[in-house]
Amino acid sequence: MDALSYNTERAKLHIAEYGRNVQNMINYAKQLESKEERNAAAASIIDVMGQLNPQLRDVEDYNHKLWTHLFIMSNFEIDVDSPYEIPKKESLNQRPKPIPYPKNSSKYGHFGYYTEQMIKEVAKIEDEEERNVMAERLANLLKQDYLIFHTENVENSVIKAHLEELSDGKLKLDDSVELKSTNSILKQAGVTVSKPTSKRTKRKRKK
Predict the structure, then answer these.
(1) Which of 13, 23, 103, 133 is buried most, with the most CB atoms less than 10 Å from its CB?
(2) Given pLDDT bands bounded at 50, 70 and 90, which one contains residue 6?
(3) CA atoms within 13 A on the CB side of 136
(4) Tally of CA atoms within 13 A in the half-sphere of 87 that contains its CB
(5) Over the chain, what HEC string results?
(6) Cα 19 → chain centroid
(7) How many whole angstroms separate alpha carbon 177 and alpha carbon 13?
(8) What confidence tens digit (pLDDT) does each residue in 39-93 have?
(9) Domain extents for the chain?
(10) Most confident listed range (97-111, 139-153, 180-194)
């Protein structure tokens, strides 16, 4: 009676999703003497791999990915004619280059870099009427950003002062210009602020 073979004693699978049978088929195909036989065996193995992983059919370059997996599972040692460029082992082991993190900074974190850039662009508008309309819209945007970040009331005069500061004094709003109310902004943003319980209400509850 042959001794039982445990998974821990077997060679490690290169891509476990295909199973040991496919791995054994590839190992066998590597040893075939004729390249014609190896090509035929590789084509059959690709068909089996596709049937075992039908979800790959939704992936772009479906067949290309299967052939790449074939070469990976053969440890890049199978000599066959591939319909695609044969990948190199070194290229698959390379780490992707790190993506540089944007270093854009803003003076006030709750307003954000792009909002401050918008203010600079609006400040360049020559038409006074158009510039004032855009300035009012920006003031409401600043108030919205502030409230979402802090979730507490802020005076309109503070927002207008920030707008004037960030525009280098080019965007000024009169005291008569009314901005959106705090409650409407928070409601529109889906932020719920709990109302403080008055002392009078607490006394009634004690009774």
Answers:
(1) 23
(2) very low
(3) 12
(4) 19
(5) CCCCCCHHHCCCCCCHHHHHHHHHHHHHHHCCCCHHHHHHHHHHHHHHHHHHCHHHHHCCCHHHHHHHHHHHHCCCCCCCCCCCCCCCHHHHHCCCCCCCCCCCCCCCCCCCHHHHHHHHHHCCCCCHHHHHHHHHHHHHHHHHHHHHHHCCCCCHHHHHHHHHHHCCCCCCCCCCCCCCCHHHHHHHHCCCCCCCCCHHHHHHHHC
(6) 32
(7) 71
(8) 999 999 999 998 887 777 777 788 899 999 999 999 999 999 999 998 888 776 6
(9) 12-93, 113-189
(10) 139-153
Structure token digits, residue 176: 């008569």
Q: Residue length, the chain?
A: 207
- pTM attached to this predicted model: 0.45
Query: What is residue 104's predicted lDDT score, i.e. its pLDDT?
Result: 64
Residue with tokens 């005291």: 175
CA nearest to 26, candidates 66, 68, 100, 78: 78
Q: How far apart, in whole angstroms, are the C-alpha atoms of residue 160 and residue 50?
A: 63
The pLDDT of 184-201, averaged and rounded, is 63
Return the structure tokens found at 80. 């066959």
